[in-house]
Amino acid sequence: MIIVMSKDATREQIDNVEKKLSDLGFRTHPIFGEIKTVIGAIGDKRLLNTHAISSMPGVESLVPIMKPFKLAGRELKQVPTIVEVGDVRIGGDEVVVMAGPCAIENEESFIGVAESVKAAGAKILRGGAFKPRTSPYAFQGLEEDGLKIMAAAREATGLKIVTEVVDTRDVDLIASYADIIQIGARNMQNFRLLKEVGATQKPVLLKRGLAATIEEWLMAAEYIMAEGNSGIILCERGIRTYETATRNTIDLSAIPVTKELSHLPIVVDPSHAAGTWKYVSALSRGAIATGADGLIIEVHHDPGAALCDGPQSLRPSKFSQLIKELQPVAEAVGRIL
Amino acid sequence: MIIVMSKDATREQIDNVEKKLSDLGFRTHPIFGEIKTVIGAIGDKRLLNTHAISSMPGVESLVPIMKPFKLAGRELKQVPTIVEVGDVRIGGDEVVVMAGPCAIENEESFIGVAESVKAAGAKILRGGAFKPRTSPYAFQGLEEDGLKIMAAAREATGLKIVTEVVDTRDVDLIASYADIIQIGARNMQNFRLLKEVGATQKPVLLKRGLAATIEEWLMAAEYIMAEGNSGIILCERGIRTYETATRNTIDLSAIPVTKELSHLPIVVDPSHAAGTWKYVSALSRGAIATGADGLIIEVHHDPGAALCDGPQSLRPSKFSQLIKELQPVAEAVGRIL
Amino acid sequence: MIIVMSKDATREQIDNVEKKLSDLGFRTHPIFGEIKTVIGAIGDKRLLNTHAISSMPGVESLVPIMKPFKLAGRELKQVPTIVEVGDVRIGGDEVVVMAGPCAIENEESFIGVAESVKAAGAKILRGGAFKPRTSPYAFQGLEEDGLKIMAAAREATGLKIVTEVVDTRDVDLIASYADIIQIGARNMQNFRLLKEVGATQKPVLLKRGLAATIEEWLMAAEYIMAEGNSGIILCERGIRTYETATRNTIDLSAIPVTKELSHLPIVVDPSHAAGTWKYVSALSRGAIATGADGLIIEVHHDPGAALCDGPQSLRPSKFSQLIKELQPVAEAVGRIL
Amino acid sequence: MIIVMSKDATREQIDNVEKKLSDLGFRTHPIFGEIKTVIGAIGDKRLLNTHAISSMPGVESLVPIMKPFKLAGRELKQVPTIVEVGDVRIGGDEVVVMAGPCAIENEESFIGVAESVKAAGAKILRGGAFKPRTSPYAFQGLEEDGLKIMAAAREATGLKIVTEVVDTRDVDLIASYADIIQIGARNMQNFRLLKEVGATQKPVLLKRGLAATIEEWLMAAEYIMAEGNSGIILCERGIRTYETATRNTIDLSAIPVTKELSHLPIVVDPSHAAGTWKYVSALSRGAIATGADGLIIEVHHDPGAALCDGPQSLRPSKFSQLIKELQPVAEAVGRIL
After folding, report:
1. I want to staple A249 with a disulfide (CB 3.0 to 4.6 A). Which of A236, A241, B70, D106 is the partner?
2. CATH annotation of A83-332
């Protein structure tokens, strides 16, 4: 850590900061510049709350040298993590596709979609039973009935299932059905939920928050990992920017950035990023070529009648065609799909 | 609602959309332009899920004419809401100041700060017992012990107390202590939590999400109000932008905007917006002059030793001086402080 | 155009707005809703200033139905534009690569880089002679001497050359040397410069502004096209967002969006977007797979000694290897490179 | 400057960086941490291009300790700058109001507005003769005829005049008429224009770019000051964010931030920030209370007929009433208006 003192800092203030750092277990190393003094503080104290130093008199700013995440970072674990969900491996050579509707609406149509996406090549089935909706008047999901339908679809198709949890009180219930538990964008910093999901030891699909930095996202992963659960799949789903031509702005540079900072696998959700099915194909190709370990795509048997996110859902036939387009792209970057 | 059809939409597609709208209870009104057709759909159907129309073939976009919030909006309730917390009225002539430390650390110092802020003119005491922290290794709050300390401080000073809830499982506990329940920025779209807090019928301080639009914020209020709880105090606390000179960018235009769209009172948190105590005074003056109904300010007896948010906390003496600066500003805009 | 009247609008105000629209040549079509009235105004009047209507009494908002760009849009010209620069065609089957250093520093090294990038497969040579730099104390370019060096490099290699113009006074000079004139991100809304560059009738590489919407970008193209110059190549180079892990956030969804709205070709600049050479390879793959018509990449013979943008420049050997990686990706999406 | 080496940096790489720093005139000071090495480089070398170091092998990042601006910063000039425009002083005790229409449309109405705003208390008259418009089909200003009308209005009222320059070729012409030359938001990084305007030695109103950081804005001021012109008035006019409820998001925290970093005065433009006249009053009050040295407000005799920015313009009567509201606010913060 580097502490930058303001140009008017007194010698006494500098000494006080050094003393405090030393009390916290750091070795200190002041550098007296022409105008300002900076203090190097040696010691990896990420687990320590050193924030208070920044409010000591004479301190201008703090510059951390180490990343704040330990477990999620590359520094202690160089080798990429492969998350295993039964025989499906996320983060290996294969690009894994997850697909399904936004919300589960009824058993018949859900199993129909499940069969279609399986036939097309998806390995994991997505579907929402508990839906976080912007409006209290919108459809909120079938809740446990939805989970039962998901289980039936798994039975019928052999696909693994991923579904979202939105309340700490539902974690056990959802964990008893799902193969992968999803933390949605709006709950990325619902720290209590992260802890509870961490405690289940189930694989977690961790969506990036609507306006979360990559560092905050990896700190959310750190919350889950601090509970002993390292089966985390990051999911980029677009961030909020000033641009309104798409619902969110897909940040594909998050792929090489997280690959550099972290050992965790990353998948991309082009459906939520775009907000319209029309761009899903182009963004899916881009995500795979950039290096994504998988995709999660909304597919609905009749988007015009969907209770949720119809405009961004593909019909099964389009989805099947998309997978065929994606296979050569995966191959071109040395992956299998 | 206006439905814009794409320029290649066929007559049949236009007819299908009209039929669907009609089935949903709208009266329709197509306008055939030179290049595109638009369909006016008459009927206030905000409580209806009309989203699916946007994925019908030939539809380019949907333009809502009515705001999506009913209870939180000005359309059904013109007169401003005054939230009463005992004898403290938020949204009336008085500018109400809430103050206290980020986290409750121990009884002695907390009651000390409580007495200071009361002497300076604050009416409500803030303090965190359950803290949402970016790092799992940071201090997470004293939990129920913290609530007990808050209650003791209320006893000692007569101040009302406001504290944050971060988990649906804690709502009843917190409601049994707090005078106002705070929903933090990170939980603004934790819809389950909003519902539970709505059900308590206690006044709620609803912070704006880190990157929430004003419309989403009012929809969060709508969630609480849909449970029959109308005692909502909006709280602007800075939004996330590209600018890093301040921790967040305070959006004071949110004051006139929410006053136009909604009847709910709004207070401003300059401490979290700025991220440094140095700008708290200027932003507090600006907030009151712009029309805020109150302020919530972090005050700590020794910011350099604070377990949380030290850099943005004022010492009690500075806080007392600030209130003196604010009184003429409040008066200049016809308010009392 | 749809005019939304406020719910308190009087009948007289509605009539006034209708009359004004009618005076401007629109046919009007009022729709009286339960709470609000909207007025449909038929007629494609994009070339008309209808903005003033939004400040008439009783008007709440204006909803344009047609896009504001005519020449740059798809509505009047469905077939994609191919920009021809000698025998290089941008927007056709081939993915065209432009490469070279940020700034031209001296003839020897520039020609050396030119030869390397040509050998690797680039078709167009980039290099800055007039540099817009954030600091007045940074190297500002060799000016006309730089242009002469570019011309010599073209002579030596047969590559076409692209270089930036930053001042209306230099347009003729630069047009006399360059094959493609570049408008940089900071000048995307320097409308006088756009007009002058339009008047040269030379191909233009139009970078997206740092925080420009896609609509504003296409309006900048419209300025150039309104001068009769339709040889425009759009260039996505990252936008400003809250995320600081990369210098800018590359917006690859701009590719399908501009392809839908416009007939103009689009290339991607991964170097400026990332701000570091480390992510250039991944983002280049992603751009091509998403559908970019080309790339513009910074290459320097010795990045550690570069006078400008060293950190984001590739060495010639890395560039050559990158092109080899990109070829199968281009093929996978049906393109040649 | 602090150079952070990556954790895999070799001893040789560290030595190379030290040597390069030493060649550039820095004294170096390596600190060997447990995991990473950082190198302190002593010497105020802001005028030097040290950027290249960041692309040397083994270097992870550079942390500047000194701000990049010298002339615009507080470090070399502590005392606030007061810009004198005849007998009007900007940056002193008085809050100075500039007012007038977006564009000059004809002499009669412009002089009418000038007389009204003077009577209300404005000291400076604004008006556009050269207009940067998003659409090439929108009214672009009366050009020199507009300047002549401005001069006539100055003659008639005694007000000082401020008007925008958008092209280096017009600088001398505009300087021959204007008392203050305005650099608009879109040209804040038109560096050639900054230099030319600097050379005129006339006072400059420097608007913040649409998405400019405060640091970039002060670097733009530095460009002007590097030409020997220190009469710069900063102007906050709203920044681009994800929020669309206002045209831009007014960043009032820019007031205390620039006051801390710089000695230059700052005024606020609530009209462009809000995009609607309805919020101008609230934001003007907020700006003054936060500490602005002045305001620049759009006033038009008939907003519904304005050729430019009608929706955000006040009628003269509203403007006059606004000034009366602002006077007690200015007084409350120890200023005169």
Report:
1. A241
2. 3.20.20.70
